[in-house]
Amino acid sequence: MSLIKKVENQERLTQKEAERLYELDLFTLGKLADNIRQEKFGKKSYFNINRHINPTNVCADICKFCAYSASRKNPNQYTMSHEEILDIAKKAIENGAKELHIVSAHNPNDGVEWYMGAFRKIKEKYPHIHIKAMTAAEIDFLHRQYGLSYDEVIDMMVESGVDSMPGGGAEIFDEEVREYLCKGKVTSKEWLEIHKKWHQRDKESNATMLFGHVESRSHRIDHMLRLRELQDITGGFNAFIPLVYQRENNFLKVDKFLTGQEILKTYAISRILLDNIPHIKAYWATSTINLALIAQEFGADDLDGTIQKESIQSAAGAKSSNGMQIEEFVSMIKNAGFIPVERDSLYNELKTY
Ligand code: V47
Fold it and tell me: What's the pLDDT at 314?
């Protein structure tokens, strides 16, 4: 059977077959992905009103792609106090945020309580806010730094009010590439194990993939298939988020950057391969808003949110430091021919614009 027929019949592809998807022309591939997207969600495009908070850039790990952590290229260390974090949360909630997306570097100086206390204090004051926090890389860091088991860290997160986990720290699962990119950080196996443990508590999370640096197409497919395998067991992933590598102010040497075409193909392929992960998120902070809008026709059904402030990708060159106004966001989605649907963090629909 031809590859296209197999996709049309929604049959699962092997690694080798999936690699061949990249050889299809962009529009054939886009149509295949769009058919699946339309069958699931029609013309709806999801987003939420959220605020990213990055409470510290002090990091014990060294990832070559990272421009955010304090280093020779970014000597401006900072760590927020709980009061500062609470103040940001207060303003964000007053501005309509329904989700706080809290991701930190791996700060060896301030202890577990600095991480957990922030969540607890936010939840005490604002019980209804959704806290999406602690990447698997942060959990693994607390495990290594303080001799806690993954279960113990996860217990603390649950007790402190973390509602869901973001998808960060996945990078690329291939062990050789990972060793080159971020030696010493959470391994691929551990990343998957941590999400499995989280899902086993009936909690949901996302999964990312950082691409467009030194990885090959085959590494991307391998990454997606490892996620598909875990999702078959747990069903706990809400969204897959391909993060386009941002090139400024870091230590990774990349000669060739991705074309828009290759990025769109990767969104489309993720929609086709990840038949068990409901949402494909075009995170506009890394794809640019223009490409994210087009990605809606290539399998993506979610554009993340208004963000309000963002420090990780913008440190590496993304134009996301001040987020986006909701009116502008909604009108861009509409003008692109899609229906903006505000959602909560777990994809319950709140408002159709
Ligand atoms: O894991 C770091 C990435 C991630 C760069 O779960 C970079 O909804 C591009 O996890 N270029 C953190 N990316 C961000 C993250 C995230 C973002 C949006 C939504 C969600 C979600 C999660 O940022 C890290 C890393 O892969 N990153 N440096 C860079 N130069």
Answer: 86
